Amino acid sequence: MNQTVASADDLHGGSRYERVRARVHAVMSGADLTNPLTRVVGMGLATLIILNVIAAALQTVASLHAVWYREFEIFEWFSVAVFTAEYVLRLWACTADPRFRARVLGRVRCALTPIMLIDFIAFAPSYLVHFITLDLRMLRLIRLVRLLRVLKIARYSESLQLLGRVVRARAGELLVTLIAATVLLVIASTVMYYVENEAQPAQFSSIPAAMWWAVETLTTIGYGDILPVTVPGKIINAFIALLGIGLFALPAGILGSGFVEEIQHKRRAGLRCPHCGRSLDETSSLGTEGGHDDSPGGPRRSG
Fold this sequence. Notes:
With 303 residues, this protein is an all-alpha fold. Helices cover 68% and strands 0% of the residues. It contains 13 helices and no strands. 14% of the residues are buried. Mean pLDDT is 77; it is low at 1-13 and 288-303.
Protein backbone atom coordinates (compact mmCIF):
# COMPACT_ATOMS: atom_id res chain seq x y z
CA MET A 1 0.00 0.00 0.00
CA ASN A 2 1.11 3.57 -0.66
CA GLN A 3 0.27 4.82 2.80
CA THR A 4 2.76 5.58 5.53
CA VAL A 5 3.22 2.77 7.99
CA ALA A 6 2.95 3.61 11.66
CA SER A 7 6.34 3.47 13.35
CA ALA A 8 7.24 1.16 16.21
CA ASP A 9 7.21 4.11 18.60
CA ASP A 10 3.63 4.87 17.59
CA LEU A 11 2.60 1.27 18.19
CA HIS A 12 4.44 0.66 21.44
CA GLY A 13 4.89 4.12 22.92
CA GLY A 14 2.58 6.94 23.90
CA SER A 15 -0.83 6.66 25.53
CA ARG A 16 -3.21 3.76 25.07
CA TYR A 17 -5.42 6.02 22.93
CA GLU A 18 -2.51 6.74 20.56
CA ARG A 19 -1.56 3.07 20.35
CA VAL A 20 -5.11 2.08 19.45
CA ARG A 21 -5.28 4.83 16.86
CA ALA A 22 -1.98 3.71 15.32
CA ARG A 23 -3.15 0.10 15.17
CA VAL A 24 -6.47 1.10 13.59
CA HIS A 25 -4.59 3.17 11.01
CA ALA A 26 -2.25 0.25 10.23
CA VAL A 27 -5.20 -2.10 9.72
CA MET A 28 -7.39 0.29 7.72
CA SER A 29 -4.53 1.49 5.48
CA GLY A 30 -3.39 -2.08 4.80
CA ALA A 31 0.11 -1.23 5.97
CA ASP A 32 0.37 -3.99 8.61
CA LEU A 33 0.15 -7.04 6.34
CA THR A 34 1.47 -9.31 9.10
CA ASN A 35 -1.77 -8.77 11.01
CA PRO A 36 -4.49 -11.26 9.91
CA LEU A 37 -7.12 -8.62 10.72
CA THR A 38 -5.70 -6.40 7.96
CA ARG A 39 -6.28 -9.08 5.35
CA VAL A 40 -9.75 -9.89 6.70
CA VAL A 41 -10.81 -6.22 6.61
CA GLY A 42 -9.38 -5.69 3.13
CA MET A 43 -10.97 -8.80 1.65
CA GLY A 44 -14.28 -8.15 3.41
CA LEU A 45 -14.57 -4.57 2.14
CA ALA A 46 -13.49 -5.55 -1.37
CA THR A 47 -16.14 -8.30 -1.44
CA LEU A 48 -18.80 -5.89 -0.18
CA ILE A 49 -17.91 -3.38 -2.93
CA ILE A 50 -18.25 -6.04 -5.63
CA LEU A 51 -21.59 -7.22 -4.20
CA ASN A 52 -22.83 -3.61 -4.17
CA VAL A 53 -22.05 -3.16 -7.84
CA ILE A 54 -23.83 -6.44 -8.67
CA ALA A 55 -26.85 -5.43 -6.55
CA ALA A 56 -27.04 -1.98 -8.17
CA ALA A 57 -27.06 -3.61 -11.61
CA LEU A 58 -29.67 -6.24 -10.67
CA GLN A 59 -31.99 -3.59 -9.23
CA THR A 60 -32.45 -2.18 -12.72
CA VAL A 61 -34.17 -5.47 -13.70
CA ALA A 62 -37.85 -4.71 -13.05
CA SER A 63 -38.86 -8.29 -12.22
CA LEU A 64 -36.04 -8.74 -9.68
CA HIS A 65 -36.63 -5.34 -8.12
CA ALA A 66 -40.34 -6.07 -7.64
CA VAL A 67 -39.70 -9.40 -5.88
CA TRP A 68 -36.55 -8.57 -3.89
CA TYR A 69 -37.17 -4.89 -3.19
CA ARG A 70 -37.01 -5.23 0.61
CA GLU A 71 -33.88 -7.39 0.52
CA PHE A 72 -32.16 -4.90 -1.78
CA GLU A 73 -33.01 -2.06 0.64
CA ILE A 74 -31.72 -3.99 3.67
CA PHE A 75 -28.48 -4.81 1.88
CA GLU A 76 -28.13 -1.17 0.79
CA TRP A 77 -28.43 0.16 4.32
CA PHE A 78 -26.10 -2.51 5.67
CA SER A 79 -23.52 -1.45 3.07
CA VAL A 80 -24.02 2.23 3.85
CA ALA A 81 -23.48 1.53 7.56
CA VAL A 82 -20.26 -0.39 6.86
CA PHE A 83 -18.90 2.24 4.45
CA THR A 84 -19.78 5.02 6.91
CA ALA A 85 -18.00 3.22 9.76
CA GLU A 86 -14.99 2.64 7.49
CA TYR A 87 -14.85 6.31 6.54
CA VAL A 88 -15.15 7.50 10.15
CA LEU A 89 -12.44 5.09 11.32
CA ARG A 90 -10.09 6.16 8.55
CA LEU A 91 -10.67 9.82 9.32
CA TRP A 92 -10.22 9.29 13.05
CA ALA A 93 -7.02 7.26 12.69
CA CYS A 94 -5.43 9.29 9.90
CA THR A 95 -3.53 11.49 12.39
CA ALA A 96 -1.25 8.50 13.01
CA ASP A 97 0.12 9.27 9.54
CA PRO A 98 2.81 12.01 9.73
CA ARG A 99 1.24 13.69 6.68
CA PHE A 100 -1.99 14.33 8.61
CA ARG A 101 -0.59 14.80 12.11
CA ALA A 102 -2.62 17.94 12.97
CA ARG A 103 -5.91 17.05 14.67
CA VAL A 104 -8.19 19.31 12.63
CA LEU A 105 -6.25 20.47 9.57
CA GLY A 106 -4.71 17.03 9.16
CA ARG A 107 -8.13 15.40 9.01
CA VAL A 108 -9.37 18.07 6.59
CA ARG A 109 -6.41 17.39 4.28
CA CYS A 110 -7.03 13.67 4.56
CA ALA A 111 -10.75 14.10 3.77
CA LEU A 112 -9.86 16.06 0.63
CA THR A 113 -7.58 13.40 -0.80
CA PRO A 114 -9.01 11.69 -3.93
CA ILE A 115 -9.39 8.26 -2.33
CA MET A 116 -11.24 9.69 0.70
CA LEU A 117 -13.53 11.71 -1.56
CA ILE A 118 -14.40 8.48 -3.36
CA ASP A 119 -15.12 6.85 0.00
CA PHE A 120 -17.42 9.75 0.91
CA ILE A 121 -19.32 9.56 -2.39
CA ALA A 122 -19.85 5.84 -1.77
CA PHE A 123 -22.27 6.43 1.10
CA ALA A 124 -23.27 10.12 1.24
CA PRO A 125 -25.95 10.05 -1.53
CA SER A 126 -27.86 7.34 0.34
CA TYR A 127 -28.34 9.70 3.30
CA LEU A 128 -29.28 12.57 1.00
CA VAL A 129 -32.32 10.69 -0.31
CA HIS A 130 -33.88 10.55 3.16
CA PHE A 131 -33.27 14.16 4.15
CA ILE A 132 -34.13 16.05 0.96
CA THR A 133 -37.23 15.73 -1.22
CA LEU A 134 -36.07 14.85 -4.72
CA ASP A 135 -37.87 14.14 -7.99
CA LEU A 136 -37.73 10.75 -9.69
CA ARG A 137 -34.94 11.69 -12.10
CA MET A 138 -32.70 12.86 -9.26
CA LEU A 139 -33.42 9.67 -7.31
CA ARG A 140 -32.37 7.59 -10.30
CA LEU A 141 -29.19 9.63 -10.64
CA ILE A 142 -28.31 9.12 -6.97
CA ARG A 143 -28.92 5.39 -7.30
CA LEU A 144 -26.67 5.35 -10.34
CA VAL A 145 -23.93 7.04 -8.28
CA ARG A 146 -23.80 3.87 -6.17
CA LEU A 147 -22.04 2.18 -9.08
CA LEU A 148 -19.10 4.51 -8.35
CA ARG A 149 -18.44 2.34 -5.30
CA VAL A 150 -16.48 0.14 -7.65
CA LEU A 151 -13.79 2.85 -7.59
CA LYS A 152 -13.16 1.97 -3.93
CA ILE A 153 -11.80 -1.39 -5.06
CA ALA A 154 -8.58 0.37 -6.13
CA ARG A 155 -7.69 0.77 -2.44
CA TYR A 156 -7.54 -3.02 -2.03
CA SER A 157 -5.99 -4.01 -5.38
CA GLU A 158 -2.23 -3.89 -5.89
CA SER A 159 -2.74 -4.19 -9.65
CA LEU A 160 -5.00 -1.14 -9.81
CA GLN A 161 -2.56 0.81 -7.64
CA LEU A 162 0.20 -0.19 -10.07
CA LEU A 163 -1.93 1.10 -12.96
CA GLY A 164 -2.47 4.39 -11.10
CA ARG A 165 1.27 4.84 -10.54
CA VAL A 166 2.00 4.14 -14.22
CA VAL A 167 -0.63 6.64 -15.40
CA ARG A 168 0.72 9.32 -13.03
CA ALA A 169 4.30 8.67 -14.15
CA ARG A 170 3.34 8.82 -17.83
CA ALA A 171 0.79 11.63 -17.56
CA GLY A 172 2.90 13.99 -19.68
CA GLU A 173 3.25 11.58 -22.60
CA LEU A 174 -0.43 10.60 -22.43
CA LEU A 175 -1.41 14.28 -22.46
CA VAL A 176 0.66 14.81 -25.61
CA THR A 177 -1.14 11.95 -27.38
CA LEU A 178 -4.51 13.37 -26.29
CA ILE A 179 -3.60 16.79 -27.69
CA ALA A 180 -2.37 15.20 -30.93
CA ALA A 181 -5.63 13.25 -31.26
CA THR A 182 -7.69 16.41 -30.67
CA VAL A 183 -5.71 18.39 -33.27
CA LEU A 184 -6.03 15.56 -35.80
CA LEU A 185 -9.77 15.33 -35.10
CA VAL A 186 -10.29 19.04 -35.79
CA ILE A 187 -8.14 19.04 -38.94
CA ALA A 188 -9.79 15.92 -40.37
CA SER A 189 -13.29 17.26 -39.67
CA THR A 190 -12.50 20.60 -41.29
CA VAL A 191 -10.96 19.07 -44.42
CA MET A 192 -13.77 16.56 -44.86
CA TYR A 193 -16.44 19.24 -44.41
CA TYR A 194 -15.06 21.29 -47.32
CA VAL A 195 -14.57 18.18 -49.49
CA GLU A 196 -17.96 16.51 -48.89
CA ASN A 197 -20.33 19.38 -48.07
CA GLU A 198 -21.53 19.91 -51.64
CA ALA A 199 -22.03 16.19 -52.30
CA GLN A 200 -23.65 15.42 -48.93
CA PRO A 201 -25.05 18.61 -47.37
CA ALA A 202 -27.20 16.66 -44.90
CA GLN A 203 -24.43 14.41 -43.50
CA PHE A 204 -21.59 16.96 -43.61
CA SER A 205 -23.68 20.02 -42.80
CA SER A 206 -21.04 21.61 -40.56
CA ILE A 207 -17.62 20.99 -39.06
CA PRO A 208 -19.11 19.76 -35.73
CA ALA A 209 -21.30 17.33 -37.72
CA ALA A 210 -18.21 16.12 -39.57
CA MET A 211 -16.52 15.46 -36.23
CA TRP A 212 -18.77 12.42 -35.75
CA TRP A 213 -17.33 10.94 -38.94
CA ALA A 214 -13.82 11.81 -37.71
CA VAL A 215 -14.39 10.08 -34.36
CA GLU A 216 -15.72 6.96 -36.12
CA THR A 217 -12.75 6.87 -38.48
CA LEU A 218 -9.97 7.69 -36.01
CA THR A 219 -11.21 5.09 -33.53
CA THR A 220 -11.69 2.59 -36.39
CA ILE A 221 -15.28 1.94 -35.23
CA GLY A 222 -16.75 2.66 -38.66
CA TYR A 223 -20.49 2.57 -38.02
CA GLY A 224 -21.07 3.47 -41.65
CA ASP A 225 -23.84 6.01 -41.04
CA ILE A 226 -21.64 8.80 -42.46
CA LEU A 227 -19.32 7.93 -45.35
CA PRO A 228 -17.60 10.03 -48.01
CA VAL A 229 -18.83 9.53 -51.57
CA THR A 230 -16.38 11.71 -53.53
CA VAL A 231 -13.00 10.39 -54.66
CA PRO A 232 -10.99 12.97 -52.63
CA GLY A 233 -13.19 12.20 -49.61
CA LYS A 234 -12.52 8.45 -49.90
CA ILE A 235 -8.77 9.06 -50.17
CA ILE A 236 -8.83 11.28 -47.09
CA ASN A 237 -10.99 8.69 -45.27
CA ALA A 238 -8.43 5.95 -45.92
CA PHE A 239 -5.53 8.18 -44.84
CA ILE A 240 -7.28 9.23 -41.60
CA ALA A 241 -8.19 5.59 -40.82
CA LEU A 242 -4.51 4.58 -41.08
CA LEU A 243 -3.49 7.53 -38.88
CA GLY A 244 -6.08 6.47 -36.32
CA ILE A 245 -4.56 3.00 -35.99
CA GLY A 246 -1.12 4.49 -35.31
CA LEU A 247 -2.42 7.23 -33.05
CA PHE A 248 -4.26 4.89 -30.69
CA ALA A 249 -1.30 2.50 -30.57
CA LEU A 250 0.78 5.25 -28.93
CA PRO A 251 -0.98 5.22 -25.50
CA ALA A 252 -0.73 1.41 -25.43
CA GLY A 253 3.03 1.61 -26.02
CA ILE A 254 3.46 4.37 -23.43
CA LEU A 255 1.53 2.44 -20.77
CA GLY A 256 3.31 -0.80 -21.69
CA SER A 257 6.76 0.71 -21.18
CA GLY A 258 5.55 2.33 -17.97
CA PHE A 259 4.41 -1.04 -16.62
CA VAL A 260 7.77 -2.61 -17.45
CA GLU A 261 9.68 0.17 -15.67
CA GLU A 262 7.41 0.06 -12.62
CA ILE A 263 7.72 -3.72 -12.29
CA GLN A 264 11.50 -3.57 -12.67
CA HIS A 265 11.68 -0.82 -10.05
CA LYS A 266 9.56 -2.90 -7.67
CA ARG A 267 11.79 -5.93 -8.16
CA ARG A 268 14.95 -3.90 -7.60
CA ALA A 269 13.46 -2.37 -4.45
CA GLY A 270 13.04 -5.88 -3.07
CA LEU A 271 16.67 -6.81 -3.67
CA ARG A 272 19.28 -5.92 -1.05
CA CYS A 273 23.01 -5.33 -1.35
CA PRO A 274 24.92 -8.13 0.50
CA HIS A 275 27.46 -5.61 1.88
CA CYS A 276 25.40 -2.71 3.22
CA GLY A 277 21.86 -4.09 3.30
CA ARG A 278 20.43 -1.17 1.30
CA SER A 279 18.09 -1.68 -1.65
CA LEU A 280 19.79 -1.77 -5.06
CA ASP A 281 18.10 1.51 -6.01
CA GLU A 282 19.83 3.25 -3.10
CA THR A 283 23.22 1.68 -3.66
CA SER A 284 23.22 2.52 -7.36
CA SER A 285 22.78 6.20 -6.54
CA LEU A 286 25.29 6.14 -3.69
CA GLY A 287 27.91 4.33 -5.77
CA THR A 288 28.18 7.25 -8.17
CA GLU A 289 29.05 9.51 -5.22
CA GLY A 290 31.82 7.30 -3.89
CA GLY A 291 29.91 6.32 -0.80
CA HIS A 292 29.73 2.59 -1.51
CA ASP A 293 32.09 -0.05 -2.83
CA ASP A 294 31.04 -3.60 -3.73
CA SER A 295 34.64 -4.89 -3.43
CA PRO A 296 35.56 -7.23 -0.56
CA GLY A 297 37.50 -4.37 1.00
CA GLY A 298 34.28 -2.84 2.21
CA PRO A 299 33.17 0.78 2.25
CA ARG A 300 35.24 3.41 0.51
CA ARG A 301 35.31 7.07 1.44
CA SER A 302 36.04 9.75 -1.07
CA GLY A 303 38.64 12.38 -0.41
